[in-house]
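Hey,

Quick one before I head out. I ran the complex with zinc ion overnight. Inputs first:
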Amino acid sequence: MEAFTYSYPVKTYFGKGAAPANLPTELAKVGPNVLLAYGGGSIKRNGVYEELTDLLKKAGKTVFNFSGIMSNPTYEKVQEGARLAREQKIDFILAVGGGSVLDCCKIISAQALLEEDIWEYEYAQHQQPGKFLPMGAVVTAFGTGAEMNNGAVITHEAKKSKSPLWGAFYDFAILDPSYTLTMPLGQVISGAFDSLSHCMETYLGFPREVNLSDEINEACQRNIIRNIRKTLQDPQDTQIRSELLWAAAMGENGILKIGKTGDFQCHMLEHQLGAYTNCNHGRGLAVLHPALYRHYLPEAAGQFARLAVNVWGVEPAGKSQEELASAFVDQLTAFIKEIGLPTSFRELGIPEDTDLKAIADTTILTGGCPKKFTREELFQVLLECE
Ligand code: NZQ
Ligand code: ZN
């Protein structure tokens, strides 16, 4: 195993009623001015907004709404939130939503206290912010596990770049499965597929030999696959929803990453696809994964073969490692189709004139990827997705 230090900063409150049971104690620790950040309004329609504002009022807080955080949050929206946080002397941010709201707030919490422009600070000066407004997360859409880490994915429209920025960890996260029951089924499935992708991306990095982190990871993958299938049978079952909600958090709470350097090449490619098309993250991954993985069949054969047997239940007797590795990619491809996710750019619905060459040329190449991609080969992968 690689050397590691393990400790985790995000206190997690999981279960039905987790907000009324725990928010009062958490709110008592922070100042009076609270930025209540959310997306396009789903929380107003499903009652979550009312429940949380009641709790905030009872705790004596002055609430400043910051709404309209869009999917694939933009750098402009971060700046808008940071300005509001400064103007209103915000003491605490309560982020309520899915990965987009949670990511946007991680960077607001840093930019509000940073004089330099955060994009320049991180990408030109290669610095990481060290001061943050304290924050709590209430997860209403799961999949990304964004509540568990301090990375945010922000779209800088002027630079045509959807890229990671480092921000704050949440001080606490509230995961109430009942808050997620109103998610559109399509978002549940694409979100859960994103969780599966995080597990696979972590698994395929270094070290490549069998290790404890990967064996736990295999269990998470089996769980997600089983519960996606069950969700399609019974979309409103809270037990199934609970499993997927926690599996999403497990993908990003550091446990599967202990002693590992992840792959995440597919994510980097999807993020740039998002920068150019604003596509849904999980659906973009669904199109890209099989095409990309076919390109690393030789390099990742050992890991793919293990996934075929240990996750997808392929019978190993009489099969070579290469045959098992191919069987893994075939199983994954068939599963994506089975659960109704797109298998091509056409099905994903992105414009035909999308500049795939520019996407390949601007994608971050990761050090943990089993294969050293050239720009030309990444472009080839994208062409195979059309
Ligand atoms: O905006 P509202 O009206 O709230 O609607 C949202 C949005 O349209 C809706 N929604 C959320 N909770 C709901 C609900 N609708 C009904 N009932 C509820 N309870 O769901 C839609 C999608 O939300 P969004 O937050 O955009 O989705 P997701 O959680 O998939 O987040 C995607 C973003 O996270 C980034 C992605 O790149 C993308 O920008 N990621 C962040 C990661 C991280 N920080 O670790 C890791 C991921 O790999 C990913 O890159
Ligand atoms: Zn993801």
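The chain has two domains: 11-180, 185-384.

Talk tomorrow,
K.
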